[in-house]
Design goal:
By secondary structure, the protein is mainly α. It contains seven helices and two strands. 41% of the residues lie in helices and 4% in strands.
Amino acid sequence: MRDPAKEWGLPDWRDAGAYGDTAAWSLERWFWEFLRRRDDLRTEFDEKKDQKYQDSLLLWKRDNSVSPDGVKTPYKAGFSVGTRKIYPESHIIEHLPNPRIGDQPYYALPRLYDRALTQVGKKYIGPDEKYFRVDFDLDMPIRPQIEEAEKALKEFQIHRNGKTIQKRRHTEKWLTYLRVLDARECGASWSEIATILPMTAGTEQTARDTWEQARALCFNF
């Protein structure tokens, strides 16, 4: 019988302490914990891991200064393949370590971008377009230019949207979200999941809603 907890390295969702010292997790670690619960990324890693390992062995063997024994295997922390699925719109190739391992070294974790960086060519941008281009003088101090650019961008954003736009992260909910995702994957019922929610919100409908919110965070952190 399939055991998702063992297969994907999931802690015991019934015990918040099983997740470790989450208060010490970096933002990138939280990002990774939600990413590694995505089926599409799990599948992609398994499809690519063997070829990436063989390619890495060949690369190390060409370098006589390093033993091939030092190449990480797919089931070791730090091994990763490349993926475009984390940032599909920008086609950024990111690290995708083994989704079975939560505790990864910093260099193997996917980078977290809070905003899409779009390069705009040197052309006129009309007032109705969503991008505003700012030029920087490379022969002048950078910091004052950044401060002035930030002021200008905020003014244009307020003019366009009526307010500045900020992405708010409800970090206090993230551990509950992970537990709910893991509980559902391990076959827990909505009523069982409701028992780990705050008493004032412990209903089956709230459990469903919480799962949907957690699931959404896996794709839009």
